[in-house]
Amino acid sequence: MKIVVIGGTGLIGSKLIEKLRADGHDPLAASPETGVDIITGEGLAGALAGAQVVVDVSNAPDWDDAAVMDFFRTSARNIGAAETAAGIGHHVALSVVGTERLQGSGYFRAKLAQEEALKAAAIPSTILRATQFFEFIGRIADSSTQDGTVTLPPIGFQPEAAGDVAAALADIAVGAPLNGTVELAGPERFRLDELVRQFLSAKNDPRRVVTDVHAPYYGIEINDEHALLPGDNPRIGTTRFADWLSRPAPQPATPQPATPQPATPQSHLPEGALA
């Protein structure tokens, strides 16, 4: 099966490409690095030719409210048109657990708009909403640091390894479209402030973590301690936090071109969202 992974050279995308190839499929990484631009549409039709499934794990390079909304609306429109022309049978999208509860953020308003556009499209689809990745815990600490102190709210948190997200996407991609949403979370539940404290300690990072119920999470105050947690019966990843911490850092994957002669490289669109 030919499966196109949009955002296929990033954290989740590269792991997904590797998993699909190991399972005997023919994955193609579509990103600006491989000559595919989902905003201008350049290279998109060629990438989708002959494919049965598209998995979108792309993310906006600019999180300004207007820019991120334009990115997700424009990319959804362009991808949908290209999928219709190519006769794609299944569109899989990566989104974020709690998106509808985080609408104080322009980013999450844009992700919800992306989900709604996908549901309204003619292409059969499945949305995977994932919780945060272990790989992003350091970024959360950095975004909440001032003068050497990390200030975080004591909200529930159930993150998983990026590899488990890729495995779930691979399984969904080769299955029948659900025309609905699936949630994915890690096998353990933490408090955000306590988890970041564990992470920094394991990395010998001297920053102190302070708990504050009013501290923002990526710029928004969260009043519901369950806002980032999945609902009933989510899919559960297999990797425990302590096991992930003990692993050596992975080597980056080498991007594969979408065409024999890719266009001039453009800035990479990171993928994975805040999930």
Could you describe the 3D structure shown?
The structure is a single chain. By secondary structure, this protein is α/β, with parallel strands linked by helices. The protein contains eight helices and 14 strands. Strand 3, helix 3 (65-86) and strand 4 form a beta-alpha-beta unit. Helix 1 (11-22) packs across helix 6 (162-173) and helix 3 packs parallel to helix 4 (106-120). It is globular, with a radius of gyration of 18 Å. The two termini are 27 Å apart.
In short:
This protein is of the alpha/beta class. It contains eight helices and 14 strands. Helix 3 (65-86) runs parallel beside helix 4 (106-120).
Spell out the blueprint of helices and strands.
Elements: E1 2-6, H1 11-22, E2 26-30, H2 44-48, E3 53-56, H3 65-86, E4 90-96, H4 106-120, E5 125-130, H5 137-143, E6 145-146, E7 149-152, E8 156-157, H6 162-173, E9 180-185, E10 190-191, H7 192-202, E11 208-211, E12 216-217, E13 220-221, E14 235-236, H8 241-245
Parallel strand pairs: 1-2, 1-3, 3-4, 4-5, 5-9, 7-11, 9-14
Antiparallel strand pairs: 6-7, 8-10, 12-13
